[in-house]
Amino acid sequence: MNSALCTLFLFLASSLILFHVESAANDIVSDTCQKSAASSPNVNYDYCVKALGSDPKSRTADVQGLGLIALNLLESSVTSTGSDIQQLLKQKQDPYVHQCLSDCSDLYSDALETTKEAVGAYREKRFSDVQNSVSTVCTDATTCESQFKEKKGVTSPLTKQNGDATQLSYIELAILAIVKGS
Length: 182
Prior knowledge:
By secondary structure, the chain is mostly helical. It contains six helices and no strands. The radius of gyration is 21 Å and the shape is elongated.
């Protein structure tokens, strides 16, 4: 009977500890996203929490670590979008849409290199360089999306992907402001 009570006690104690650790991890993500959304009207709080929380490393990260996570998510988004564009370019479509996709391919190719440079700069704490790079990536995604709107009746097949890249850029820029202010 005594060992059963000890086992139960140990289980409850470890559960509480794990709950506390998980809660603290959620707090840093939630707090960072709240500060980011408060400092930038472009940051969507719910998107921020979902995106940063999707990386298991966010459970043990500090704010600076969340900045690197956001950059890695941005790099992944840019890489994925570049692949999506290549698949779309293989499909038969309106010549105008094909030209837009071709332009987007160039933009995302540049954005991928820029994002990789930003990750290196972040690790070296060259935050001004990161800020410039992420702003460029954000502009590339916005430019890609906007060119589809230049012709009436054309719908961008990349709206979600461009929105993700833009939102992740805004999140990164807001976290950078927090890190630089610390």
